[in-house]
Each structure stands twice: as C-alpha cells, then as structure tokens.
UniProtKB/TrEMBL annotation:
This is Xyloglucan endotransglucosylase/hydrolase. It comes from Macleaya cordata. Catalyzes xyloglucan endohydrolysis (XEH) and/or endotransglycosylation (XET). Cleaves and religates xyloglucan polymers, an essential constituent of the primary cell wall, and thereby participates in cell wall construction of growing tissues. Residues 1-24 form the signal peptide. It is found in: Secreted, Cell wall; Secreted, Extracellular space, Apoplast. The active site is at E104, E108. Residues 24-218 form the GH16 domain.
C-alpha cells in the first residue's frame, strides 16, 4: 500500500513536464463543467451556462457536481448566498473524493435571520478524518453581491481565499504524521439544504418556510489553473511549473500573511486549534504550525 501512494505524485510530475495537455479550458460554462445531481428541477443552469441557481423549499434542496475530477489546482467560484431570512439553510461548496478514507476541502455557509451574520465554516478532511473546523464571519454581506471563494490546493498547502484574501491555510504536515490530501482526485460539489437542527445559533433558529424558495446563485467558475485527473493521470496547465505559479507556491508572501492575520484576528469565531476542551489529550500536531 505504501508505495502506491507515490504513484499519483510521480504521474503528476510527469505531467508537469508537459507530456499531457488535457487541461480545463475557458472559464465559466456550467453546462460544460457541471452536472446537476439532485433537486428535481430546483437546480437550474441559466443565461447560456453563465449562471447556476440552487433552490430549497420544504420538499427538497438541490445540488450539482463537476464533471471533472481534479488533483491539485486553483479553483474559483463566485457565489451569492440566500438573501433575507436564510436561517436554517446551509450552502455547501466543497471538493471531495469518494469512499470512507476520502479527502475533502469544505466551505459551508450557514444562513441567518435578516441582518444577522452568516457563518463561513471551513474544514479539511484527509484520509477520512476531519475535525479541523475553522469558522468566520465575513467583512461584507455575502447576499448582496457575488463574491469569489477560492481553493488553492497544491502538494505543500491548502489555502482558502475570499475575494483574493486568504482566510485559512492548512499546511502539509506529513513530517509530523498528519496525512495530507494529495493522492485522491476530487470533484467539486455544491448543495443547498435545510440544516435547521444545527446551522443557525446551533439549531435554536429554525427555517421559516414562508420565505421559501431559498435561492443561492453561482457564476464565473474558473479552473483554468487546475490539474484535471483523467485515465489515472493528472494534467496540469503548461505554465504551472514556473516559479510564480500556484502549484509551486510553498508559503504565503508577506502581504498574504498580513491579510490572513487580519482575517483571523477580526473575523475568526472558531478555531479547532484553540479548542483544548475538545482535544483533552492535546491539540492535533498540525496546530503547532497554525498562526
Ligand atoms: C516548464 O515546462 C516547459 C515545458 O512544458 C519547459 O520548456 C520549461 O523549461 C519548464 N520550466 C521549468 C522552470 O521547469
Ligand atoms: C446569527 O446571528 C447570531 C446573532 O448575531 C450570531 O450569534 C450567530 O453567530 C449568527 N450566525 C449563525 C449561523 O448562527
Ligand atoms: C507563470 O505562472 C503565473 C501564474 O500562473 C503566470 O501569471 C505567468 O504568466 C507564468 N509565466 C510564464 C513564463 O509562463
């Protein structure tokens, strides 16, 4: 088993040498890039593929997934979240592989009463293990306009961005015995569903169905800088081997570090790495790296 882990990485570096060229092309056609997976007509692709909407009512939510699988990438999506009284609703946008030892990189947006703040919940699963939540308020109203939510995933790091501001970094700490997502290709998934048993103020505020249908909107998907997994190999864009590319980026530059500190100081409301009650035997090893 141990040796098989290295195979995708080798294939990955082979593809960096320019052997294959099956890469994601032009940005943003939802017909081309995504399949609607559930919701019985509640998920819609509109405006010639430039806009996608998910809808939730008392009977059902809805969701979609990417046609491609990716192994590493910089992936952007613009979302406009459910406006008004969105309490009880959750809009999830994430990357995930399949199976009980899956990897996953999550954004989840927990709705709220009109005028009260959404919570942006993030998590990273590696080899089936999560429990790495960080939660944030946002510095804008995410229901008024579209904002860009990005995941940069390379062999060194996973970085979550909101409008180009990094909000979270999960570093590869395999040297400390912490598995890192790097061998399992992932698809992009999104869904809008009712989670009023836990989402808003821990489940105290329930979904008000008189406001249904609840609608979240998506546009400007961009995976031009992502490596598409196909026939057992990952194909990266040809410019991804240069030193300023996302794929080789090992650390955040100083401007980005200032930004991530600003977000974490002013907007972070939960960090598993500070939750000593939850980890009485000691915080997870990677927490010694987290700023
Ligand atoms: C990047 O790959 C191209 C071929 O795709 C090659 O010509 C170039 O030398 C490579 N650059 C580096 C820095 O490895
Ligand atoms: C909703 O608003 C309340 C009150 O401001 C706040 O405590 C809570 O964190 C907000 N977000 C969610 C998702 O509960
Ligand atoms: C290197 O990659 C960066 C980021 O993707 C890109 O902006 C730049 O044009 C690339 N440079 C070359 C020489 O390919």
């Amino acid at each position: 088993m141990a040796t098989s882990c290295y195979r995708p990485m080798i294939l990955f570096f082979i593809s960096l040498l320019g052997i294959s060229s099956l890469m994601a092309t032009s940005a943003g056609n939802f017909y081309q890039d995504f399949d609607i997976t559930w919701g019985d007509g509640r998920a819609k692709i509109l405006e010639n593929g430039q806009l996608l909407t998910l809808s939730l009512d008392k009977a059902s939510g809805s969701g979609f997934k990417s046609k491609n699988e990716y192994l590493f990438g910089k992936i952007d999506m613009q979302l406009k979240l459910v406006p008004g009284n969105s309490a009880g609703t959750v809009t999830a946008y994430y990357l995930s592989s399949l199976g009980s030892t899956h990897d996953e990189i999550d954004f989840e947006f927990l709705g709220n009463l009109t005028g009260e703040p959404y919570i942006m919940h993030t998590n990273v699963f590696s080899q089936g293990k999560g429990n790495r939540e960080q939660q944030f308020y946002l510095w804008f109203d995410p229901t008024k306009d579209f904002h860009t939510y990005s995941i940069l995933w390379n062999p060194q790091s996973i970085i979550f961005y909101v409008d180009d501001t990094p909000v979270r970094e999960f570093k590869n700490s395999e040297t400390m015995g912490v598995p890192f997502p790097k061998n399992q290709p992932m698809r992009i998934y999104s869904s809008l569903w009712n989670a009023d048993d836990w989402a808003t103020r821990g489940g105290l505020v329930k979904t008000d169905w008189t406001n249904a249908p609840f609608i979240a909107s998506y546009r400007n998907f961009n995976a031009d800088q992502a490596c598409v997994w196909s026939s057992g190999a990952s194909s990266c864009p040809s410019n991804s081997n240069n030193s300023s590319s996302w794929i080789t980026q090992a650390v955040l530059d100083s401007t980005s570090q200032e930004k991530i500190k600003w977000v974490q100081k002013n907007y972070m409301i939960y960090n598993y790495c500070s939750d000593t009650k939850r980890f009485p035997q000691g915080l997870p090893p990677e927490c010694s790296l987290t700023s």
